């Protein structure tokens, strides 16, 4: 799995608001980490780390992009970095 670069210009998180056709990969109302797009990714899609633990592209319309306050972002980053038990 690729790690995103620490770049304040990039919104690192997205809240899933729709998962039609991707019910196994995405959970509605869940926060997902955004990673850098690959060169051939469509402009209206975003790349997130989904339920598989890998990054894939999904329609941007399925998400609301979030900019978190710095102290909250630190907590969320720790949560994403923690191993899933």
What does it look like?
There is one protein chain. The protein is an alpha+beta fold and 85 residues long. The protein is 14% helix and 25% strand. It contains one helix and five strands, in the order βββββα. The strands form two sheets. A three-stranded antiparallel β-sheet has the order 2-1-5, with no helix packed on it. Strands 3-4 form a two-stranded antiparallel sheet. Strand 3 and strand 4 (55-59) form a beta hairpin. The relative contact order is 0.24. Mean pLDDT is 86; it is low at 1-9.
Q: Which secondary structure elements does this structure contain, and how are they paired or packed?
A:
Layout: E1 13-16, E2 31-33, E3 45-49, E4 55-59, E5 63-66, H1 70-81
Antiparallel strand pairs: 1-2, 1-5, 3-4
In the CATH hierarchy, the third-tier topology is known as SH3 type barrels
What would CATH call the class?
Mainly Beta
As for the number of domains, it is 1
* Total E-strand runs: 5
The low-pLDDT segments are 1-9
- Summarize the amount of helix as a percent range: 10-25%
What is the CATH architecture term?
Roll
Please identify the structural class as seen in this structure. alpha+beta
Average pLDDT value?
86
Q: What is the count of DSSP helices, taking H or I runs of 4+ residues?
A: 1
Query: Strand-residue fraction?
Result: 15-25%
What general form does the structure show?
globular
Widest beta sheet: strand line-up: 2-1-5
Distance between the termini: 18 Å
Report the sheet with the most strands, covering strand number, pairing sense and barrel closure: 3 strands, antiparallel
How do the helices and strands follow one another from N- to C-terminus?
EEEEEH
Radius of gyration, in angstroms, nearest whole number: 12 Å
């Amino acid at each position: 799995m690729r790690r995103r670069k620490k770049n304040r210009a990039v919104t690192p998180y997205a809240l899933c608001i729709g998962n039609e056709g991707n019910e196994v990969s995405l959970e509605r109302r869940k926060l997902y980490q955004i990673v850098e797009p690959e060169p051939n990714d469509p402009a209206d899609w975003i790349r997130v780390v989904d339920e598989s633990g890998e990054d894939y592209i999904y329609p941007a319309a399925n998400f609301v992009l979030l900019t978190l306050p710095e102290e909250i972002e630190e907590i969320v980053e720790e949560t994403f970095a923690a191993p899933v038990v």
